[in-house]
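Entry for the shared binder. Reason: the reviewer on the internal report wants the predicted structure included alongside the sequence.
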Amino acid sequence: QLQLVESGGGLVQPGGSLRLSCAVSGSTLDYSSIGWFRQAPGKEREGVSCISSRIGSTNYADSVKGRFTISRPAKNTVYLQMNSLMPEDTGVYYCAASMLAGTWYRCDPADFGSWGQGTQVTVSS
């Protein structure tokens, strides 16, 4: 029902910054949680950061705390500001939404049913 489209990925040097954008559309934008996930080569998909659509609470993976910031200025717009990027941040980044309550807290990809196509982030010198 929901459509999500990511943008903003690219090649950046270590220590650099990127801002990913997620545009959300559909017949209803009544999702409970929305977030960013990433998958590196040879690794399982992991939650990077999730946010509650109702109360604004956020969750961050330990590996990105202090460097990444998720924001949701509107129901149809979600950002991930990524600073101090490291090579280990390299991967395909996905925006996804969940209809289930409380899913922002665990930020588990299994709880998210609507996914974007992904955008590649490569951190390399």
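Summary line for the report: The radius of gyration is 13 Å.
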